[in-house]
Amino acid sequence: MTSPHPALRLSDQIAELLIDPAAAPAAWSSRPQWRQSLAHGAPGIALLHIERAAMGLGPWEPVRAWLSVAAGIPVTSGTDSYLYYGAPALAHALTCAAQARPGSYQRALAHLYEVVAADAVRRCEQAEARIERGELPALAEFDTIRGLAGIGSVLLRRGPGGDPIRRVLACLVRLAEDVKQHGEVLPGWWTLASPSGEVDERFPGGHANFGLAHGIAGPLALLALALRQGVEVDGQREAIRTVLAWLEHWRDGHTWPYWITPAHLTGPDRRPLPPQRPSWCYGTAGIARALQLAALALDDPHLRHDAESALATALVDPKALAATTDLSACHGYAGLAHIAHRTAADASPRNTGRLRSSADLLLDTTHPPHADPDEQAHHLLATAGPAFLEGAAGTALALLAPATGAAPATGWDTCLLTS
Length: 419
Description:
Layout: H1 7-17, H2 26-29, H3 42-54, H4 61-70, H5 87-100, H6 106-132, H7 139-142, H8 148-158, H9 163-175, E1 179-181, E2 184-186, E3 208-209, H10 217-228, H11 236-250, E4 259-260, H12 262-266, H13 284-298, H14 301-314, H15 318-322, H16 333-345, H17 349-366, H18 373-384, H19 392-404
Antiparallel strand pairs: 1-2, 3-4
Pfam family, one: LANC_like
Binding site for Zn(2+): 281, 330-331
Keywords: Metal-binding, Zinc
């Protein structure tokens, strides 16, 4: 058995500092979304301890303590909830716990699934009505963080045979249909808002978003993951191919733009991309993993090789790595190491070695030789906070699989749509 990478010590130390909810500084716990935010609060920290307990690296007591914090107030549902907040967030955390302890949390999960499923159906009805009106969507209708792709990840895992996940998939299939606006043919996921989801004068005419967090790579990943599990609706394969063709059209070597605007559609604006980080949220890592999942679903070895090669190349691109400035799961070195490890596990033999080597180098960057994990952990908590997406908990969680060489024990990264 291969010895764990020293970066595991950093993960261990972060977990130790986050073991007791009662010790959380008021600056964290007083935030309005603290209890129910997977991205920023208690459910995300619980996820770290759930995975560690499932791997035999930590006790279950912190799991119960952090889940109690998350469930300590009425759970938010409806329009104010999404994968990273409220009922879907808690359902994800509890599903991961139940994965490690079969039979646990079943009553709570059954109730949460009904709540999430009902909300998903309402969202689908709204999306279908919007499509019939010929209007363009908001990012929050379909993306991973706030939309149907993210909520669909909960439904796919908890109720793969149910009607709600099929409704979600059908909506995402229709999202791939072109839309005509003012004489211009646009992809169905074009939105009139800016990448923040707000109207912004810097984005006249809106944009098309490529990212796995907020763009079309999220729906692509869900459609592919469902197809791999045998959950298929009419037009699903064609929708996957439509998105793949779009991504191929805008590909520049091993990179994709974060987004495009009308200027890119009507003019010669295909300038080389500036250096950009190859992250999960926006960039090559998230998109390449979505492409690999699509290739596996369609049994397309050429696409699979291209996706894996793009990621392996991006992870040794000095300019791209220089644009990566933190350790986070969302857009930092730990997140890249996790995606490299996940992608390597599904890669063809000629790409496996490259991706595993990249994961090791990323771990070295995350926890350099002779670094003091205690100092690192304290510094990370002081500067980035305890959050899952952009802070210490997510960093510690993303390090676990690549540092130990194992697959995630609980499937925690389904909330990233990387599995």
